[in-house]
Specification:
Layout lengths: L6 H4 L9 H28 L2 H16 L13 H4 L6 H9 L5 H5 L3 H9 L3 H8 L4 H18 L3 E9 L2 E4 L9 H6 L9 H12 E5 L4 E10 L1 H4 L21 E7 L4 E8 L7 E8 L7 E11 L7 E9 L6
Helix pairs in contact: 2-3
């Protein structure tokens, strides 16, 4: 017998629970675990705790995909690749040798090269070959499973602007050095960005943002799923190790925090994301006890289902002394 407390642990370790009762129990435990994690995120969010919120969101991804983000004692086995159907440690090691470090790298490969990489390191193909089975049918099924999963893997374009009780002041020559990293991160512009998004990006790059302790800040985020990747989304489960959400699109948490202080300043959950741009406004409040000076804030876009999808965007906020008001 396997204790109930060990059932979730069997999923990330890719243990195959062949007994029907154990599989049913695991499904029930994972369903409850997902609800508990969502509730815990609500609690830590209301308390403004950034680090535990990020950990819980990553744990939610691992439960859905049945794999740890990284495999202990084996840095080459990355969870972002192990979540793909039919992928094993051997497959991931072969990917590492081929320079494939994530799902997007795999998708950008030439079809023939990708097929050789996947099938050449498939335990299922080796077993069928040893048994003298139909290799062609097995190869077709394996590549079909991989393609259907990859079609659900989200490619998200994100742009944002900062507004609210914020004074935007044109940067002077002496301000640019401190913001060099921020500007480099914002150099890669999306060709499909609309004029408003470009204007917002330019203002983030060229202006300082002055706020007072206790001020309300609105971070306006626009999210858009890549149209090619989202067309005719298949109704297949996003993970055969988490059968409880077979026909749902994944959700996203959009949150703003300060890594320096560990403060979670604002959070919002987006339940679905189609091909049309989706505008999300995250309301933030500068803590009253915030020390005056320049702070680096981070916008996080966290997926609840897939590993390797999360995005981070840094921007600076200049907190002025309260007495200056």
């Amino acid at each position: 017998t396997i204790p109930v407390g060990r059932l979730p642990d069997s999923s990330p370790h890719a243990a195959v629970l062949r007994h029907a009762d154990l599989r049913e129990d695991l499904g029930l435990v994972l369903t409850v675990a997902h609800r508990l994690i969502s509730a815990m995120i609500d609690v830590v969010g209301s308390n403004g705790w950034l680090p535990p919120a990020l950990v819980l969101m990553e744990l939610c991804q691992m439960l859905h995909q049945g794999t740890w983000e990284s495999i202990p004692k084996d840095a080459s086995c990355v969870g972002a690749l192990l979540q793909i159907p039919h992928f094993t440690r051997g497959t991931v090691e072969a990917c590492a040798k081929a320079g494939v470090e994530g799902v997007y790298d795999l998708l950008e490969m030439e079809p023939k090269s990708r097929e050789r990489l996947v099938l050449g390191n498939s335990l299922e193909m080796a077993a069928v070959e040893a048994a003298g089975g139909d290799l062609s049918a097995t190869a077709s099924r394996v590549m079909s499973d991989v393609a259907r999963w990859c079609a659900r893997y989200p490619a998200i374009d994100v742009s944002f602007d900062v507004d609210g009780e914020v004074e935007h002041v044109k940067k002077e020559a002496g301000d640019t050095d401190d913001d060099k990293e921020e500007e480099e991160e914002e150099e890669d512009e999306d060709e499909d960005e609309d004029e408003a998004a470009r204007a917002a990006r330019e203002r983030l790059r060229t202006h300082r943002r002055l706020v007072l302790p206790g001020a309300s800040v609105s971070v306006k985020v626009t999210m858009r799923r890549d149209a090619d990747a989202s067309r005719d989304l298949p109704p297949a489960p996003v993970s055969d190790r988490f059968p409880c959400r077979a026909k749902e699109l994944e959700s996203f948490w959009v949150l703003v925090g300060c890594k320096q202080t560990g403060a979670l300043l604002g959070i919002k959950k987006v339940n679905t994301l189609a091909t049309e741009p989706l505008a999300v406004t995250v309301k933030c409040s500068v803590p009253e006890d915030t020390t005056a000076g320049r702070q680096k804030w981070t916008l996080f876009v966290m997926n609840d289902t897939f590993l390797g999808v999360d995005q981070e965007f840094n921007f600076t906020m200049d907190v002025e002394p309260a007495e200056m008001s």
